[in-house]
Design brief:
2 domains, Rossmann fold, single chain, four-stranded parallel beta sheet, alpha/beta
């Protein structure tokens, strides 16, 4: 019933009469996903972007917030996209399936863009995305620039013995093998406590375990900066955590650097690299 009503609404507005053709190189691209927003802004000129999500302009969540300023925003909703007559709509893996199916039923070209889970996957992801949006050369340049940055990081870490780091978030959440933040920690030359505890993805780390491990680096959730204001953030007030902070380096990881995988991931690695003893001044 909901789909029927939406279709009737668009028909009444005359939108069904102006479904765009599938151009080989899309000229009017709309994005419904934050990660797609950011990569689109890296690869495609503004004049070929008809809208991005409202998350794209928020500096706390978007690596490309400055570049997104002034573009139309669709708020991730179908009714915000169709009046812009896009010839390519980029949806995310978690975009509402009903909305994706509706857009396709109306004749729009919709590409569901997967989310890369690590730096190995992101190379292929960027190259495929570049082909999709008609910017293959720019995509190759972006991948080459990322690889060059990673190579420089690896060179700086040569002969550098890794010390222990731990990620800690509300409710004692930490990261282990397979999590992007774990890869960020390890590529920055640190051992990740969650991985050494055989945690896969996300798991819980008791405060007692954290205290016993005595990490040299503590990577906190971004909301730690304002103490969150919730029971979940009460761990930040715990004397045991304060005692760790007396000897450990403490870094707050912004979501804009860790939630999507791409050039921003290299920035996140470099953020932790600055905390590596002996490398901070290099």
């Amino acid at each position: 019933m909901e789909i029927f009503l939406i279709r009737c609404l668009f028909a009444a507005l005359g939108l069904l009469l102006s479904v765009p053709s599938h151009a080989a190189v899309p000229q009017r691209i709309a994005s419904l996903s934050l990660c797609a927003d950011q990569l689109l802004l890296m690869l495609v000129p503004r004049e070929r972007i008809v809208s991005v999500t409202d998350w794209a302009v928020r500096p706390e969540s978007s690596y490309m917030a400055a570049a997104a300023q002034g573009l139309p925003l669709n708020h991730g909703l179908v009714e915000g996209v169709l009046p812009q007559h896009p010839d390519l709509i980029l949806a995310g893996e978690y975009t509402d399936v009903t909305m994706v199916n509706l857009l396709r039923h109306l004749g729009y070209r919709v590409a569901v863009v997967p989310v890369p889970q690590n730096l190995d996957e992101v190379r292929t992801h960027i190259l495929r995305f570049g082909e999709l949006v008609g910017a293959p050369e720019r995509a190759r340049e972006l991948v080459a620039a990322m690889d060059a940055r990673l190579q420089r990081i690896d060179q700086r870490l040569q002969n550098q013995p890794p010390q222990l780091a731990a990620a800690y978030a509300p409710n004692g959440l930490t990261v282990g093998r397979g999590a992007v933040l774990a890869e960020i920690i390890e590529r920055a030359g640190w051992r990740n406590l969650g991985s050494e505890m055989n945690i896969h993805g996300y798991g819980n780390l008791a405060l007692e375990q954290l205290v016993m491990a005595q990490p040299e680096l503590l990577v906190l959730d971004v909301t730690a900066e304002n103490r969150g204001g919730s029971i979940a953030h009460s761990y930040l007030q715990h004397p045991a955590l304060a005692s760790i902070a007396k000897h450990a380096r403490v870094v707050t990881m912004p979501p804009r650097l860790s939630e999507c995988v791409g050039p921003m991931t290299i920035d996140a690695i470099e953020l932790l690299l600055k905390q590596t003893p002996g490398l901070a001044q290099q």
